[in-house]
Design a protein that fits this description.
By secondary structure, the protein is an alpha+beta fold. The chain contains 26 helices and 16 strands. Bound molecules: zinc ion.
């Protein structure tokens, strides 16, 4: 068990903005930071982080929590693991308890880091001469090798194995990390006589290696096996080095090979990353999504075109923008750069079309549009894909292309893809999360003054009064009433409303409070007193109208006007919208 005060110390000392920024670019807006939500698909930022309150909240999907729960969700850690990892980062000393022990992955990271040191030194050592020549022949000098910490695995069976032993790295960790192989006659190095590409996670920690044979050995490329810290389908080679550029450009260039990536970086395309010889996975896209759009490079041969179309499905389901950059037939990015230089690459990138447009053109080529069967095939397939475009504006854009290709009126396509007539404008965005969380049958007019009272109170606890407490007592919404009483209680006790206080609430309640706390101030900054007064009046008058109505009903009944009384009663209970009480 980690002592409670240590957990609080970690939560206080950790910068939630800094931690979340490792995953999502955040921009300061007013007192808070905002960015694209890492927990759901969105195009405009509704994810809000408050350094002061130490919490985050998404107005889109209602995800909420503090720095510890964020790390738990993003890294798949248990609570104590998350606390320990933050404690380490922010220098909070937690007494070690034998029961939990250190993170076993820590030993893997140590083994991998030591291995990277070994490979790096070997490249500049006497044994590394052949690898240096190899790299030079492929056009890579010391600068790019240094930027990516390239190394060399010497042509020996026990080079790294011996080095790690001397360094005090346990054999078990070296085997688990995949750099040493357990053999019948003893352990030996996995990578031999290869140029080594250290693979890092987004924080720059070494998680595995790729190795390219410098002679004719097979396989040409050898990767570390998957381990507790290395998952091939989730890893993007070069992400750590490219991250700042990707943020700056708002886009990432994706290739498949190590040397393609190095060539792009060498030629100034520093926002490039590589999958490890595999196609893009949903995990890759989710990692890239917060940073903007993707340029994927494809060979323009048929295989490359097919690969691009396969990728389209994935981009559509992740709601991500992708442009297909087609390189001349048979040329991989490395070769293309050597041939056409950075200017040629720049032109190819600028000419890249949105993947959906590329797909529609390919489809048009495949079917015979002069024949009715061809038209039908084109229409059916296009509609099937258009329906997967979630953004209405984009769907409309592609629909007009389909209409033009078929020589049809756009409205015919709109019918088929069920374009809504209005653009889906609903309640103001900031309240949407709260309203949705509370169920759509709740009338906005009913809870709005209640929400306002809570918001003002959260931002200005000094305004707390008995009148507010009375108003909270008559809140119509039971959940908001519960939260209101909790806030009132905290005000009375002088507790600050932040991550530690919110920790005592249930998830859903904490989400509502976070939403109220982090909502942008829209004009309410100037006169919180007035907003509070107006809302209190509305809430308290509601109670008064109810009392007055009841009095009238009673009087009517006493006087024998029973029919009129029951009519008024019915009408009152039905509420202003006539649909009954919530
Ligand atoms: Zn979200």
């Amino acid at each position: 068990m980690i002592p409670k005060e240590k957990i609080e110390e970690v939560r206080d000392r950790a910068s939630i903005v800094q931690v979340i920024s490792d995953y999502v670019p955040l921009i300061k807006r007013g007192q808070n930071h905002t960015g694209l939500c890492p927990f759901h698909s969105e195009k405009s930022p509704s994810f809000t982080v408050s350094e002061e309150k130490k919490i985050y909240y998404c107005f889109g999907c209602n995800a909420t929590g503090n720095v510890i729960t964020f790390i738990m969700k993003k890294e798949g850690l248990t609570f104590p693991e998350a606390v320990r990892s933050l404690a380490k980062r922010y220098g909070v000393v937690i007494p070690d308890v034998a029961k939990t022990g250190p993170d076993p992955r820590e030993l893997l990271y140590q083994a991998l880091k030591a291995s990277a040191e070994f490979f790096y030194k070997e490249l500049s050592g006497a044994d590394g001469a052949s690898a240096q020549v190899y790299l030079k022949n492929r056009g890579f000098d010391g600068e790019i090798a240094g930027r990516f910490n390239l190394g060399f695995a010497p042509n020996r069976w026990d080079g790294l194995t011996g080095f790690l032993k001397k360094k005090g790295i346990s054999t078990e960790a070296a085997i688990d990390a995949g750099v040493v192989i357990k053999g019948d006659k003893g352990n030996y190095d996995r990578f031999r006589n290869r140029v080594i590409f250290p693979i890092t996670d987004v924080k720059g920690r070494i998680i595995g290696f790729g190795g390219r044979a410098i002679d004719n050995s097979m396989p040409k490329y050898l990767n570390s096996p998957e381990s507790a810290v290395f998952k091939k389908g989730e890893t993007l080679y070069g992400f750590f080095q490219a991250k700042q550029s990707i943020i700056k450009e708002g886009s990432a260039i994706v290739v498949e090979g190590y040397f393609d990536l190095l060539a792009l970086h060498k030629n100034g395309f520093t926002n490039s990353i590589a999958t490890m010889g595999t196609a893009l996975t949903p995990q890759h896209l989710r990692a890239l999504k917060p940073y903007g759009s993707v340029y994927a490079l494809f060979d323009s041969d048929q295989a490359g075109r097919n690969a691009a179309i396969r990728g389209l499905q994935l981009f559509l389901s992740e709601e991500m923008a992708c442009r297909a950059v087609l390189l001349p037939q048979g040329k991989d990015p490395d070769e293309f750069l050597a041939l056409s230089g950075p200017d040629g690459m720049k032109k190819a990138i600028e000419a890249a079309e949105p993947l959906m447009e590329f797909f529609l053109k390919e489809l048009e080529k495949k079917v015979k549009l002069t024949a009715p069967e061809g038209k039908k095939k084109y229409f059916d397939t296009a509609v099937e894909y258009l329906l997967k475009v979630k953004n209405v504006a984009e769907r409309g854009h592609y629909a007009s292309i389909v209409a033009a290709t078929l020589g049809m009126a756009p409205s015919a396509i709109y019918d088929a893809i069920k374009m809504p007539l209005n653009g889906g404008f609903g309640p103001s965005k900031a309240f949407k999360g709260v309203l949705e969380a509370k169920g759509s049958n709740l009338k906005r007019g009913l809870i709005q003054p209640e929400l306002t009272v809570l918001r003002v109170l959260l931002k200005h606890p000094e305004l707390f009064s008995d009148k507010i407490e009375t108003a909270i007592e008559v809140f119509r919404d039971p959940a908001l009433k519960g939260i209101g009483l909790f806030i009132a209680d905290s005000c009375k006790k002088g507790l600050k409303m932040d991550a530690s206080t919110l920790g005592e609430l249930k998830d859903e309640e904490a989400g509502t409070v976070a939403a109220l706390l982090l909502r942008e101030d829209d004009g309410f900054v100037e006169s919180p007193e007035k907003m509070l007064e107006d809302s209190l009046k509305r809430i308290l008058n509601r109670g008064r109208i109810k009392e007055t109505t009841q009095e009238i009903i009673n009087k009517l009944e006493e006087s024998g006007w029973n029919e009129v009384a029951s009519l008024i009663k019915k009408r009152f209970e039905a509420g202003p919208s006539g649909k009954g009480k919530p």
